[in-house]
Amino acid sequence: MGFLVSITNNPFLPLDVELGRYRYNNTLFHNNNIFNIFKQTQAVGRHSDRLHIKKPNNFNMYIVIGLPLNKREDLFNPCNSDIVLEPLSNGYIKLKMGTQYQRLPNRDEWEINKTAFKWKGEDNYLLRSKFSDWFKSVVYRALNKFECYGNYRLVTVDNVPYVIRTSESGPAITLKITNESTGFKMDVDLVPALQFPEERWPVGSGYRDIPAECSMGAYGWVVVPEPAKSDDSSQLWRLSLYNQEKKLFYNTYNLRQTVRYLKKLRDALEMKEIENYHIKTLFFWEVVERKSEPRFWNKPPSELFIIMVKRLHRAMANRNIPYFWNKQYNLIGNVASNILAGYANKLQRLVNILDDPTKYKMVAEYLLTDDEYEAYKPILFR
Fold this sequence. Notes:
This protein is of the alpha+beta class. The chain is built from 12 helices and 13 strands. Strand 5 (147-149) and strand 6 form a beta hairpin. The longest helix has 18 residues, at 301-318.
C-alpha cells in the first residue's frame, strides 16, 4: 500500500506552529500584568502530534495557569486538601476548594488570590464558566493593547502586518489571523487549562499510574474547562494528560503514519462519531501491550495498518473503547448501538479484503475520496 503514503504526508507544520506558538501567545500574555499565574503555552492536538492528514490552518494552544494552592492532599481528611479532586465518568472531574483555598483572600499576594477565589460557585466548587469568563476577559484586554485596524487588531511580525479577528467556541477564544496580500490564514484556538502536579495523580481508584517513561515532572497534568457531552454542569472539568500521552508515542517509528491511515479511513467511511482521540486511544493501548516487542512499530505501515484496522473493527463490534487512564470508562458509550454496528459492518468488509492479499488494490476505495480515487486509478491499474 505504499502508493497511499503521499495522501497522508504533510510538509506544512513547522512554519505555522512557530508563528502561532511563539509570536502571538507570548505577545498576548507575557506583557499582561494580571497574568502572574500564567505558566506556559502548550501546542496540542493533531498538528503538535504530527498526526494531521491535511494542510494545517488551525492550531490549538493550552494556556496553562497555575492555582495558588493545589499540591497538598489529605487522604484522611480530604477537606483539608488544597483542592479536593472528585473524579467522575469518562475523564471528567470536579474541583472543590479545600480549607486553605477557602482562606485565599486572607493570604499574601491579594490580587492573584482574589482572582482565583472568584472562580468558586455554590458548595465551594470551582466553576469552569467563571474561570472561562475570566480568561476571555484577559485575552480581550491583552488584544486591546495592539494597534487598531478598523474593528480589529493589527500585529506585525518580521515587518509583515497581520490582522487579528476573534470568535468564541466553548472555553476557547479563536484568533483568526490573516494577511490579505499574501493570502495567509491561520486560526489559533486559545484554551485555558489549570495545572496540577503529578503527585496529585492518580485522581481516584481505577486510574492507572503515570508510566515512569511518560512523567513530565514539574509540568504535571491539567484540567480543561470543557463540558461533558452528557452533562453540561459548570462544575465538570475534563482531565488532560496530553504531555504524558505524547511521550507514549516516543520512539514508535511508523506508528504516526499508521494513525494517519486510520484517520483517513475514518473520514472516507464517514465514521463521524469516532473522534481523533478515540483513534489515538487505540494506539495508547497497543503501545502498552507491545512494550515487550521493541521493534513492533518498525513494521511496515501497511502491516501495522492491517493490525490496527482489526483493532478498530473489534472496538466497534464490542461497542467499547476503554479510556486509557481508567479502563472502566467507555469513550464511545454515548454513541448509539446501531451506529456502531454500522461502522463494524463497513470495517468487516475491509477486513475481508485485507485478509486476501490478491485484493490489496481494493483498499484504496476505503481510504480515498472519489476524486482521489479517480486520480490514483491510472497508478493502481496500469
